[in-house]
Amino acid sequence: MRTYELIQKKRDGGELTAEEIEALLKGYLSGEIPDYQMSALLMAVFFRGMTAQETTALTMAMVRSGETLDLRAIRGTKVDKHSTGGVGDKTSLVLIPLVAAAGVPVAKLSGRGLGHTGGTLDKLESIPGFTTELSAEAFVSQVNRIGCAIAGQAADLVPADKKLYALRDVTATVDSIPLIAASVMSKKIAAGSDAIVLDVKTGSGAFMKTLDGSRNLAKTMVAIGNAAGRRTVAVISDMAQPLGMTVGNALEVREAIETLRDGGPDDLRELCVTLGAQMLVLAGIAVSEEDAKARLERLLSDGEARAKFREMVRAQKGEAPAPSSGVVVAIDAERIGLAAMALGAGRAKKDDVIDPAVGIVLRKKVRDAVREGEVLAAVHAADRRRAGEAVARVQAAYAIGRSAPPAGTLIHEIVT
Asked: Could you confirm whether 161 is annotated as catalytic?
């Protein structure tokens, strides 16, 4: 059938087959179907909706539009989490290390803020030096090593979603439950986890303002996930008021850390424990929600969840690893100073502006033993390019040998 006839079929309330949906999406991505025809189809979907079979077919066609993330090398049952977005929603910052501390590997791909909703990547990048750009190999390796990672979505993951969303955004077709569900679930399925927990927001701060609308969206996404072979559960949580007490990237990170320290606001803690309990049950390491919640509460109170967050931050900050094992025999202080200056901690010209947030924290000094890959120094940078340059400078400043040099002298003499 021609594109015109498929648009007409959907306009008149007909059901598109999986093959027809696949052909439409491929034609649009290849440029054979122009924006104006795809806009007409999206508007027909907006008014006529989609059946469960159509929505699943659209989702899987979007998944096949690009690469998928292979997480088979990660040990254990991988459980992903997604929030439909809200105000003050710093849940992932608490939830991911909390669940990882309980023994569930979490390989989380997150996004940036959209409209009035904050983005997990934006929040994490308010931590100086934190990098959210990880290669697939580094992403999988980190999850195997410490149990969790949060990174940005690769450009070749579900490219159809980016193109369709841009079109929906300018054609007033964003608020369509089948299109929202396909957009969310295509990314979650392509991300490769075995099971998915969805945090579907409802209320004034959410995209779905009514409980009925949120429930409909939740049921649609759960059906898609299960049809795709991913065990999927949705929790509908309230967004009539902001979550927690803070709104804003660095402030929300601070509040998340307070929660991991067994404090923080009650609503944030309750939501994280509720979502986490679902993740533990799906992973098969808790027999019931009650058992899972009790375990998560213990991890918050005994500091293990906080320690896991610290591990993740250390793993994803700008750090200079030791190129080999041995003993630090020398550190070129001038090179360290130049590295800090290049970050913005000093002036190359008299009118340069100092950045008080950047700098270098030495983790190893002369005579300290180091293992290959162990952190020599942590770099606090304003952007990833400067962080990478500073890491190289810091590594070059360290000399590592086989045996420790003689103990140095701090005070050489006193002259009066």
From this structure: yes
